[in-house]
Amino acid sequence: MFRMPCQPRKGWQQLANEFGFHFHTMYGEPYWDESAYYQFTLEQIEKDLEDPTAELHQMCLAVADEVVNSESLLTQFGIPEAHWDTVRNSWLQRDPSLYSRLDLVYNGKAPAKLLENNADTPTSLYESGFWQWLWLEQNVDSGKLARHADQFNSLQEKLVHRFKEIALHYGINQMHMACCKDTVEDRGTVQYLQDCAKEAGLTADFVYIEDIGLADTGVFTDLQDNPITDCFKLYPWEFMLREEFGDVLDDANVNWLEPAWKSILSNKALLPQLWKRFEGHPNLLPTYFAEDIKNNALSGKWIKKPLFSREGANVSLIENGVESELSSGPYGEEGFIIQAFEPLPVFEGNHTLIGSWLVDDMPAGISVREDKSAITQDLSRYLPHIIL
After folding, report:
1. I want to staple 164 with a disulfide (CB 3.0 to 4.6 A). Which of 40, 175, 182, 200 is the partner?
2. What is the reported pTM?
């Protein structure tokens, strides 16, 4: 695994704007960075990332089956009691899932370690499935990369295929797609998924989350008062289950992507439950619920995270029992987990994180993010990768 310097394509910013990649630069800082790329061997991809991703995913599904059948675990996972049946029935009905992303610590040598499962609302999908592939094609065509250079990336074709399967499952040819206002990255992700859905033969109507209404008949509607019956939402279940409209979710009869059972996998309570069930697995880190462990009983370095935090918020370091805040944020009331500290590998001063994508149950590619900070956040740079 190497970080290789690379000459950026001439005029790539203009090309990005033409292709709808409007968040390649955010707040004056580069988000997409093609001044370098990460190089892997095929063996590293297949044995160290792809195979463990598939196995970890099956382990997560085993935990989901355990949680929906346990009131104590549903409580510990912070699922509101009023919605236990919503989550349980979604799992028992095997409501189809679209995609997810595992965040892994991997240095090219030791086994990859799971940091968390972004199973509900993962972004960076467009740049993973399409934009970095376009970068590879153009650099191979121009002779900057070897003709046999490849990429672990079947995201787009798998997304299109999965939309076709979901359409057949529900017997539909139309669905809504939603995200919040004023989030250019979220809107870009949803636009990309709209394109994939259309390629699969679906009509994909967009609505902002804030514009979804509730009709007198108890169904959700868009701004044209059309009923919303099938909807992909880039909006987390932990919000939906606690908001005013959460009380009418069951009666509204919407087929949601992601389904309600993903609220278990996207929850960091998953991590101590994985360790409890599969303790010692080479791709897992020792992890516990904070209420089960006293700080002064911990030796060495540990990371403390809220069950529902996003973008690296509210993370603390516990070193030999002494806690220090690494990042602030609005999370924490729901409880915390404590995970063994596993430092991100550093390449030329950059802390590097691997995102390993799944479409349904199948590994579908990787993304590479890096940051000068040890915590990857929403503005951490995205770099392309190759297999050589």
Report:
1. 200
2. 0.95
